[in-house]
Amino acid sequence: MLLEHWNEIAARHRDDIAFWHHGKPSGITFGEIDSISRTVDTSSDTLIAIGTSLAFFPTLIAAWRTRKPVILAENEQSKIRPIRGNVPAGTVLIKQTCGASGIERSLFFDEAAVLAEGLRNLSGLGLHRERRGLAAISLAHSYGFGCLALPLLLRGIPLDIAPGPMPMFLNPALERGGPIFLPGVPAIWKTWWQTGITSHPAISLALSAGSPLSLKLEQAIHASSNLKIHNFYGTSETGAIAFDASHTPRSTETYLGTCLPGITVDCNHEGYLTVRSDAQASGSDLPVFPGEFTSGTYRTWDLGHNSAGEIHLTRCTGAAINVAGRKVSPARLEKILRQLPGVSTARISRAPSRDFERLEEIHAHLGVSHDYDKKALREELRKRIESWEMPRHWDFQVNA
C-alpha cells in the first residue's frame, strides 16, 4: 500500500523538487529520493531513519520496498533502545518514545495504520501540493512525521527542511515564494511572534501541537498578524485526533478542535479521553496497562470531554514532563543520573515554567558525595541526554 503510493508519486513528479535541505540547498527531486533509496543498506533486520539526514526519506522508501520495519530517530546522536521481545509481524514503523505516560518504549505500527494516519492528515488539514510544508519541527517525531513526512511520501507535497526553529533558519524558505504550511509548538510560536515571523504573508496554514496553546498567545498573534493558529491534537499511540478548523481565535482555552475524519472520541468512567482510530499502534514492547492496544479504543492520559463533537482537554495525568512540547521520562533521567560519578540518589520532579508556552521544567534532586563537582556532573549529563532533557533546577544534598 505505502510503496504503491510512493511509486505513483515518484513517477508523476520525478523531476520536481521534493525537499530543500541545508545539506543540499538546491534541493532533491522525487526521482533522486527514489534512486538513493535503492542504494540504502538494507542488510539489517530493522532500518533507522534519521530525521535530520538527507537519507531520511530514501531510508523510509527502502524499508517499504524490502518490507522491513524502520525506527524513527531524531538525529545522529540519538540512542536506539533495544526492543524487548520480537517485533510483531507486519510492523513497518517503530516509534521509540515515552509519550505522555513517561515510560520509554517502542510502539509498533502496521502498514494500514501508517497509511490511515497520512491520508487523514491530508484530508483533515486540507494539505495540497500548491502549499509546501516548512519543517521546523522534527520529522522523526509523531507530529512532524504525520503532518510533514507522510504528505510528501503519499501526495508529493514538497518540504523546506530547516536546520532549526530559529527565525534565521526559516527566512530562506519563507522567501522562496508560494504559500507555506507551518507546524510548530507553542513555545516556538511565541518566538516566531516576537521576532515578526508570524506576519510573513507566505504562511497560509499554521498549526500548534505538543502542549497547550494559551488563548493569550493565540489572540495576540491573530491581532498583530491576522494569522490564525490552529490547534492540532494527537498522541504517539493513535496519531492525529482533533483539529481546530475555525478561522478565528478560540474563546475557550480547553478547546482542542473537532474529531478528524474517521476518529471518534469518548470519555471513560474516570473522565479520560478514549480514542477509536484506524491509525492506532498495533502494540508495544512494554504495555502500560492490560489491554492497552487490544480493546479497540485507546485510553489516553488526558482528562477532558466531548461536547457535541467539540473535544476539550482539562489536564494530562501522565508521568512525562512536557518541556515545550517535548516529552521527557523522569525514570530515564533518574537512571542516567544515578550512573554519574559522585551521585548516590536521584529524583526528578516537574516544575511549572514561568513561561506558560514552555509549560513545564525539569527539577533534579540529587544525593552526592562530599567531593562532587557540580560543573563536571552537569557536563557529563549533557553528553548522555538530549538538550531539552537538561534540568533547569537543581538540588544537591551532600551525603553524611
The biggest sheet, with number of strands, parallel, antiparallel or mixed sense and barrel status, is: 13 strands, mixed
Indicate the structural class: alpha/beta
Strand order, largest beta sheet: 2-1-8-7-9-10-11-12-13-18-17-15-14
**Unreliable residue stretches:** none
Instruction: Let me know the average pLDDT.
Output: 95
Question: Quaternary status of these chains?
Answer: single chain
Rg calc: 21 Å
| Helix percentage range | 25-40%
- CATH top level class name of the largest domain: Alpha Beta
- First and last CA, distance: 63 Å
CATH superfamily membership of the largest domain: ANL, N-terminal domain
InterPro entries: AMP-bd_C_sf, AMP-dep_synth/lig_dom, ANL_N_sf
Organism: Luteolibacter algae
Pfam families: AMP-binding (PF00501)
Protein name: AMP-binding protein
Fold blueprint:
Elements: H1 2-12, E1 17-21, E2 24-29, H2 30-37, E3 47-50, H3 56-66, E4 70-73, E5 91-97, E6 105-110, H4 111-125, E7 132-135, H5 142-155, E8 159-161, H6 167-174, E9 180-184, H7 186-194, E10 203-208, H8 215-225, E11 229-235, E12 239-243, E13 255-259, E14 264-267, E15 272-276, E16 283-284, E17 298-307, E18 310-316, E19 321-323, E20 326-328, H9 330-338, E21 343-352, E22 360-368, H10 374-384, E23 393-398
Parallel strand pairs: 1-8, 3-4, 4-5, 7-8, 7-9, 9-10, 10-11, 22-23
Antiparallel strand pairs: 1-2, 5-6, 6-16, 11-12, 12-13, 13-18, 14-15, 15-17, 17-18, 19-20, 21-22
Protein name: AMP-binding protein
Organism: Luteolibacter algae
Family: Belongs to the ATP-dependent AMP-binding enzyme family.
